Amino acid sequence: MLSRARRKPKKPGVTKEQFLRFVPVRNPLVKWDKYPTGEVFLLVPRGRSRRWNILSRFVNVPPDKKVVFDKVGSHIWELCDGKRTVDDIVGEMVHSYKLARREAEAPLTVHLQKLVKRGYVGLVPKGASGRGDLQL
Amino acid sequence: MGFKLFGWQGLEFEIPEDWELGLEKGNYANGFIRLDDPMFARLGVNWQTVKEKKVKSPVEFVKELKKTLKKKNKETRFLGETETKVCSHPSRYFRWKSIGEGYDLFWYCRETRRAFAAEFTFRPDEYSQIRPAMDRMIETLRCHTDDRFRNWTLYGLNLQIPIGFKLTERGIYATRVHLFFSSKGASFMIDRIGFGQSVVSETYHGIKEWFEKVYRRELRKRYRGIRFGRFKMARVFGHDALATTSTYRRGILMRRRTVESKAWVCEQSNKIYAVSTSVAGGDGNVNKDLKRMVSSIKCHEQPSEEAVSDAISSEEKA
């Protein structure tokens, strides 16, 4: 009985078709720019926790966290412009990196999931307007 | 609609260009493959080795399958049953309709002693698209062949593998394909890695470093006690390749066997290819087969005759 009570309810899943039709939108609070080499870096504002407040009294903690993507990650970030769907990005990757569709889909899905989990990107259904982003 | 050849575990047919292998299980005797289009799963094929005496007739099989489908979903309706021939074998298929729609097809291949059941699935509005594709697949399907070589295809990689070779190990990852075929005294291993130029230029400093840090580890796993030889340069399909001849021992009293490895970056397809072959003794026929297997790899579109002969001879430079 106890184990039943503890069982978590299943989260509603997203079908592949639905996922491919989502539009990745960059978080407007995340600032970004490119190095001359073409690699994108993000400046993610740090959450002002109690620990951060105490630590910042003694150590110079920068207000933003810097995240640097490699070339493929940078390309994906640039493609997440709020206009392209996941499906469009897959198509771009297939074309740019000469991959089979399935080969592009899997790493892109994993990468986007990471970006969503960290809050750098949000997925919105096609047609819903995504807010613009801040570029340095 | 364009079509391409698909081949896996002795089953060959033409599929629409945007379909890819979505799932595969089992081996030559018993197994399953699923082919997907960019959005949905489209075709599932199941096969099982059955003795000819024990195999059910297509009529019996279809009857049982209908019962099972009806049990699963009472609202399933059947829209007709037709006889056809698949690769000269008597076959039967029927159309069903519940939430989606589909065709189920059954046939038995006497030559390979395998019973096949295939299921095409589609939405009601897709019938006009799927039906011609399905007809083409059934028309071109080959479950047995008189050729000594079988086609194996995976995400644009096409290989011709002799019948005696079995797929003993495979890894199908996001951007990496690893296939290991072996027969009694020989083996053929191929690795194809996507984002080739990025890997070679950003992660590693050239193909040599990639070979030493990544591919050597793979070889060590497959060939225990392998001793690596010196690197040489070779030409493969018009690319500069890194070649090495290594040796390994299978048992204490056994003679050492040689493993020939080649790795190259194909700029046209942006992929790293690494191929290793090993053969016991100097079996001329097996060596020829291995050369044909290597030459069947088309790392980029339409390699010229010269490039193919290049691959076969692979003239090594010091």
> Which class of chain A in CATH terms?
Alpha Beta
User: Main beta sheet of chain A, described?
Assistant: 3 strands, antiparallel
Helical segment count of chain A: 6
**In terms of per-residue confidence, which ranges of chain B show pLDDT below 50 for 5 or more consecutive residues?**
312-318
Proper CATH architecture of the largest domain in chain B: 3-Layer(aba) Sandwich
Oligomer: heterodimer
Q: In which range does the helix fraction of chain A lie?
A: 40-55%
Shape of chain A: globular
Based on the structure given, which CATH architecture of chain A is correct?
Alpha-Beta Complex
Order of helices and strands of chain B: EEEEEHEEEEHEEEEEHHEEEEHHE
Radius of gyration of chain B (CA) equals 22 Å
**What is the share of helical residues of chain B?**
10-25%
Under CATH, the homologous superfamily of the largest domain in chain B reads: Mog1/PsbP, alpha/beta/alpha sandwich
Beta content of chain B comes to 35-45%
Strand fraction band of chain A? 15-25%
Summed up, the domain count of chain A is: 1
Span of the ends, CA to CA of chain B: 48 Å
Count structural domains of chain B: 2
CATH class of the largest domain in chain B: Alpha Beta
The arrangement of helices and strands of chain A along the chain is HHEEEHEHHHE
Number of strands of chain A: 5
